[in-house]
Specification:
7 strands, alpha+beta, 7-stranded antiparallel β-sheet, 2 helices, about 110 residues, about 15% helix
Length: about 110
């Protein structure tokens, strides 16, 4: 299958892919998280297992989607306020765009 539902998550208002990938509370948006603390916790890196991947589309400057890279090169990500899926990197809704950044925790 091109993607697998890892688990069906309850719909939590404000909880989206960024909250899942970066493990910050629902209701806090990515830009605020990144400006206040995330930017010091992560650095751009190569595609290594466990890295957070950021997708970008051609419509906005900010990331459009985030997920976590697995050992076998697939991505685990939460789609909107829906479920968490494991999928091939390119098998996401087209509005998400493509992966342009890999982030790993700073040491």
């Amino acid at each position: 299958f091109p993607y697998t539902t890892l688990f069906r998550s309850e719909r939590v208002p404000g909880e989206v892919c960024f909250n899942y990938a970066f493990q910050f509370p629902a209701g806090l948006d990515f830009a605020t998280y990144w400006e206040n603390e995330g930017g010091t916790k992560y650095e751009a890196n190569h595609p290594v297992p466990g890295a957070i991947v950021l997708y970008y589309n051609d419509f906005v400057l900010d990331p459009s989607h985030a997920g976590i890279l697995t050992e076998d090169g697939r991505i685990i990500s939460k789609w909107g306020d829906a479920h968490v899926f494991e999928h091939e990197p390119q098998l996401v809704p087209s509005i998400y765009g493509e992966i342009k950044t890999y982030l790993t925790p700073t040491r």
